[in-house]
Amino acid sequence: MGQKVNPIGFRLKINTNTWDSIWYANKDYKEKLHQDLSIRSYINESFKHAGLSKIIIERKVDLVSVTIHSSRPGVIIGKKGLDIEKVKQKIAEKVKNNVEVNVVGIKRPEVDAALISNSIAQQLEKRVSFRRAMKKAIQNCLRMGGRGIKVSCSGRLGGAEIARTEWYKEGRLPLHTLRANIDYAFCEAKTIYGIIGVKVWVYVVN
Q: Which of 13, 97, 114, 125 is the most buried if burial means most Cβ atoms within 10 Å?
């Protein structure tokens, strides 16, 4: 049976996708990796409602550059840039180096796989029907210019005794075409029945 490879890792450097962490390390690799995990965890916890999509960390000799992709950049920046200054200070404490934080706005959040999966997970936690949440996300994506989308939910759907997987797909999704810009994301919804995994694949033409 054919297995599904991660579409982003499969296409690195072929299209616009790149690594989420851009740096090289020799002996202190473990330390830097833990710093990256700590930075991502801090940003995700601090800005849960800012529509976070990607956090890209780039390291140079005397600078750590953090680029946050968000659908609501104003929430991160704050009034007169006060919130972003707090973020800089907190990250500087973790990495003990100069820090630069950039916030990039997402123009079409409806076709961003990470934002779609987060939105569906939040709805499932609020007990919205999984079918309704999935279909609404698909309609919004296609309406905003997505060429194709597939959404999959796995777990005790609707509180069922036996866990199962249900998915919906509309439009084109050429997973074998390497030059195709396929966005992919996975998210977990923590419901009273247990964890439900949400996977989203989106095909967008640049």
A: 114
Check residue 49 and report its DSSP letter. T
* Of 52, 66, 64, 62, residue with least CA distance to 20: 66
Once rounded to an integer, what is the mean pLDDT over residues 168-197?
Answer: 93
Q: What's the pLDDT tens digit per position in 21-41?
A: 999 988 889 999 999 999 999
Strands 21-22, 52-59: pairing kind: parallel
Helices (H) and strands (E) in the chain, counts: 6, 8
Distance of alpha carbon 66 from alpha carbon 63, whole angstroms: 10
- Which one of 3.30.300.30, 3.30.300.20, 3.40.190.80, 3.20.70.20 gives the CATH number of domain 17-105? 3.30.300.20
Domain boundaries, the chain: 17-105, 109-203
CA–CA dist 122, 127 (Å, integer): 9
Pairing mode, if any, of strands 148-155 and 99-105? unpaired
Q: Which of 182, 175, 184 is nearest to 205 (CA)?
A: 182
Q: Are strands 194-203 and 148-155 parallel, antiparallel or unpaired?
A: antiparallel
